[in-house]
Amino acid sequence: MNDEQAMKAAMQAYIDHFNAADLEGLVALYADDATVEDPVGTPPREGRAAITEFYRMALQTGARLQLAAPIRASHANAAAMAFDVQLTMPEGPSEIRVIDVMTFNDAGKFQSMQAYWGPSDMEVLSN
Q1: Is 55 a known active-site residue?
Q2: Fewer CB within 10 Å: N-end or C-end of the chain?
Q3: What average pLDDT is seen over the chain?
Q4: Alpha-carbon dihedral of residues 45, 28, 9, 110, nearest 10 degrees?
C-alpha cells in the first residue's frame, strides 16, 4: 500500500515536471508497463515508449497546468487531482478543465493515469 503523502507528492511532481517541460522527469514517474488514457474513452497508451511519445507531443504545445483544488489521495493505491490546462489552440487561448486519477504500483510509480474531460470542458478564452 502506498503512503498518502508520497502519492500526493508524486502528483505534485507531475504538475511540476509538466510545467518545466521536463519530459524525462515526467516519464520517470511511470512504471515501465503503465497505461495512459487521455481522455478516458480513447485507446490507452501502453508502455514507456508510447507514454514518452504522448508527453513529447503534449509538451510541444506549450500547455501549462494549474491545480484547481488540493490533490486528493485514497486509503488504497490511487490519487486524484483537478487542474486546468492553459494552452493556445488555433481558435486562440484556451482552457481545458481536467481530473486525473492515477493508480500506483508497490514501488510508488504511476501504474495508470486516466484523464477525465470532455468537449464541454474545453473553452476558448476571450482575448
Answers
A1: no
A2: C
A3: 95
A4: 30
